[in-house]
Every structure is written in structure tokens, then in C-alpha cells.
Amino acid sequence: MLTQTENDALTLVSPGTPMGNLMRRYWMPVGMSWEVEPDGSPLRVRLLGEKLIAFRDTSGRVGLMAESCPHRGASLWFGRNEEDGLRCVYHGWKFDHTGQCVHQMNEPNDTDFSQKIKNVAYPTAEMGGLIWTFMGPADKQPPLPEFAWTQAPEDQRHVNKTYEECNWLQAMEGGLDTSHAPILHRRLTNDTDLPGVSPSMPFVRGKAPKLEVDETDYGYAYYGIRQLDEDKLHVRGYHFIMPFTQIRQEPFSGNDIVAGHMWVPMDDNTCMVYNWEYSPSGTGMEDQELVARILGTGPGEQTPDFKKVRALTNDYLIDREAQKKFTFTGIFGVNVQDHAVQESMGPIVDRSIEHLGPADKAIIIMRKQLAQGVRVVADGGDPAGTGDTYYNVVAIDTVMSATADFREQTRASMFPEPVTS
Ligand code: FES
Ligand SMILES: [Fe+2]
């Protein structure tokens, strides 16, 4: 349970808010690299409550700047992307990828007025098929997001994104909450091959899991442990990386694939969920279409602006007949099922009336770490997860001996040595 003040401090992300200040200490995804082409259309970007424009210039560099033109406020989305700059169509002021004004069509050429004008702009980097940005103080910029998946060859990784109509924190809480998975995503029968119905998951076996959370300098590693029989444990190991990343095993893909989500706040009431996967061994990525169909992010499931076709406004096209016979929810697609319950809470859930239990331990510790991060930033320090210690961590899903310590048995897999080239 949180007071309204505590809830605001963890959820609101606009400039100057406590969480907004914390978020601005990390690299965060802006969009997919393919969304902007050299001299192509500018892209509207909503990030941490700021209205921005991304564009790729003639030389291939990505600029990210305030949408509002610093002259008199017209939207640069209408701008002309030409000759290494974006030109406002109102009076022809042109800005390069750093936001520097380089030409003004409505002023004489013999003044240095343009040199004095710089739009609000943020640095960008491209990695793992995504454009990333850092929106905080320049002297606090952390190392680039060199996760193992962003460094994997293109044919061994996959990333997509989905717009979610609720605050980023309740979306992420749904992702970190392991106890819902065999309930919300349950299939009621094996007697169906309906697309969008998740296959039987091994973690449905056994009793409710015991949850162990080990705090680290990037967030925590956590484990859902189920006793299968006297000799065997089923262990799922995950990582939470500050402030909005989870790493897990992809349960639908034969456990060759490490997957994850990033819940990136667009503003207080919406977030963009980035879903990525990669194969450390280079195998197992062949069934991407099947995975996408099961998750409900396959062709025809999203609009061109990444919104769900099965959405809050149409009750996710719930099928009550399917709910009786086939699945717990009657809603098609695992990700859509997640979004349905998270969005059903309203834009920002009222955490003053919730009742958390032992199964919510990972959520409780995550909130504690975020609150700690907010305090550290307010005191001028560096929050957790701004180093590079988490790049190689891997999630696991495995059955092991119940007689030896599960941490001993999983350490080498969860925390592999960095690969040196
Ligand atoms: S408002 Fe953009 S150039 Fe005048
Ligand atoms: Fe889920």
C-alpha cells in the first residue's frame, strides 16, 4: 500500500518530478531504427511527458528535439527533412541533428542570429534495432545500453513494441509479478490449437511458487521456485534492472531464447512496451511468427501506430464462450491478456487501497528500490543500474536437484562471465 504522495512520486514522470528526475538518469528507447529514414518523414515521439520529434538526416544521423519550433512554436513534425537538417515550414528555420539552428529563411543572411538559437535536443544512439536517448544532465550520462541482446547479430534477435494505455509502473508490476502467469494465461484444455492460446506451461505443474529475491547493484535477481517432487525443483530465474527492464526466459520457444520487456513511460498515463528476444546460442529464433501470434502481437493485431486491435475500448474482444471452454480469460493473446488487466485498473491505479501479500514480494522490493533511486538522485548521487554490471545477466527456466542449493546450481547460468573478444 502506498499513500497518494508516495504513489505520485513513483508514477509521475514529467520534467522536475521525482521519478522524472530518476528516469532521466538512464538510456531509454525512443523507437525502432526503421521508423526514420534518411530525409524521410519526421516521427512524433512522446517520452517522459515531453513532446519530441525524431528524424534521420541525409547523413544517417538521428536527431531528437522538442516538437515545438523555438521561433514561434509551430510543430516541427510538419517540417521538411532536407540536406542534413529539419526545416520548419512556418518561417523556414532549419535545425541540425543536435538542435542547432543553421539557417533562417525570414532573416537576412548577414546576421549571426541563427547561431544563438538551439532547440532542446537529446543525444541518440542506435543499438539492437532501436534508437536510444539520454535525457538527463550531460555529465551524468551512463555507459551505452550494451545488453547482450543489443549486441547479438541481427538474425539472432527480435524486438517489437506495443502501446499500453496505462501508467508505466502498473504495466511493469504486471511483468514482474510471476504469480499471475499460470492463472491469467491458463488454458483450460489441451484440446485446442487456437492461435493466441498459450501452450501448456511447465510452471503450471506443482504448487504455488516460493519467491526469492536477491538484491544487486542493478536491481535484483529473483526466482520462482516450485517443488515438483522430493528430488526435483522447477526454478525460473529473472532479473529486474532499474528502472524499467525485466529479463526472463521465453517460455513458448523451447527455452533457447532469452527475452525481456522495457516499460518506457510516454507520459503519466501511457507507456510503450518494448518486447525483445535473443538467442545466446544462435538457435531457436525460427518460430518468431508463432511466438508473435501467441503473444497477440502478430500481423493484424496492431495498428500502424503500435496500438492493439484488441483494446480497452472494445473490451479486448473478449469471447465468453472461449472463456468457458478454452482459456481463463477468453481474451486472445498472452500480451493482450496482460494489458487487459493492467489497463482495467485505470490510468494510474490507486495503490492506497491495495492489499499486497507474500506473492507480491518482487513488486514490493522493486518499489522500495525505485523510491531509493529517487532519494539518491535528489541527494546528487548515482542511482542503481547506471553502471554496466548487468549487460551479461541471463534468465533461466530449469528443473534441478532439490537436494543442492538452487543458487549454486543457477549462478553460472544467471550471471555468465562477460564474453571478451
Ligand atoms: S515557427 Fe518555426 S520558423 Fe517560425
Ligand atoms: Fe502475464
- How many DSSP helices? 10
What is the CA-CA span between the terminal residues? Answer: 47 Å
Mean pLDDT: 91
- Note the quaternary state here: single chain
- How many distinct beta strands? 18
Please indicate the percent range of residues in DSSP E strands (runs of 2 or more): 15-25%
What are the distinct ligands in this entry?
A: FE2/S2 (inorganic) cluster, fe (ii) ion
Order of helices and strands: HHEEEEEEEEEEHEHHEEEEEEHHHHEH
Summarize the structure in words:
The N and C termini lie far apart (47 Å). The chain is an alpha+beta fold and 421 residues long. A hairpin with a 2-residue loop joins strand 2 and strand 3 (50-56). The strands form four sheets. Strands 11, 12, 13, 14, 15, 16, 17 and 18 form an eight-stranded antiparallel sheet that branches. It has ten helices and 18 strands. The protein has two domains: 27-134, Rieske Iron-sulfur Protein (3-layer Sandwich); 148-414, Naphthalene 1,2-dioxygenase Alpha Subunit, Chain A, domain 1 (Alpha-Beta Complex), CATH 3.90.380.10. It binds FE2/S2 (inorganic) cluster and fe (ii) ion. FE2/S2 (inorganic) cluster (FES) is lined by residues 69, 71-72, 74, 88, 90-91, 93.
